Amino acid sequence: MGFSWEDAQAVLAAAADPEKLEEIAQRLSTEEEKEYSKSLIALEKEEVLLKPNPRRWVVLPIVHHEVWNMYKKAEASFWTTEEIDMSADLADWATLDSNEQHFIKHVLAFFAA
């Protein structure tokens, strides 16, 4: 394939501009590559999430429900602070002896580093 590192950098730099991507596609060496690039560019022009939108960073109202559902599914694979009741932690910490506190501090320090 005739796709160099410079070509890859140019594609990344022009990702938001379909006209620039089309110019880059014309520089590719084979007809097969050109046709493939043109088909990708056509798909990207139709992609709703890639179109300029001044409300892009506004969460509500939810417009793309499939994307929102994927986000919630990904979020569900991690624990969040809302799920954990930490109100009794200080009292529980006080009940530990100094060796237990030392051990827990070092375990937390290990994972924090």
TrEMBL record:
Residues of the signal peptide: none
GO molecular function: oxidoreductase activity
GO terms, biological process: deoxyribonucleotide biosynthetic process
Domain of life the protein comes from: Eukaryota
One Pfam family per UniProt: Ribonuc_red_sm
Protein name: Uncharacterized protein
